[in-house]
Write a sequence for this structure.
């Protein structure tokens, strides 16, 4: 990202880390519930340029804040699926 700011790089492709994690947990929960899960799950990517880098960084910060705010819910959900009925 710094290379974009300095003009040393004109474009970068960013993976969608938040979506990767979200979709992975969603697929894991579906599998635990006996639902079918796709063998390939595309979380997408985004083209980053000097024109949209600030918006991309703001979006990343917002998603990180959502993860921190939802952390308690996530632990409660994990505790539920860690119960004996779901242990292999």
């Amino acid at each position: 990202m710094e290379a974009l700011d300095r003009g040393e790089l004109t474009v970068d492709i960013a993976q969608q880390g938040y979506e990767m994690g979200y979709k992975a947990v969603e697929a894991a929960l579906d599998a635990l519930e006996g639902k079918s899960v796709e063998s390939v799950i595309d979380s997408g990517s985004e083209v980053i340029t000097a024109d949209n880098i600030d918006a991309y960084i703001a979006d990343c910060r917002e998603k990180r804040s959502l993860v921190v705010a939802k952390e308690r819910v996530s632990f409660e959900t994990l505790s539920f699926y860690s119960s004996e009925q779901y242990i292999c």
The longest strand covers residues 12-15.
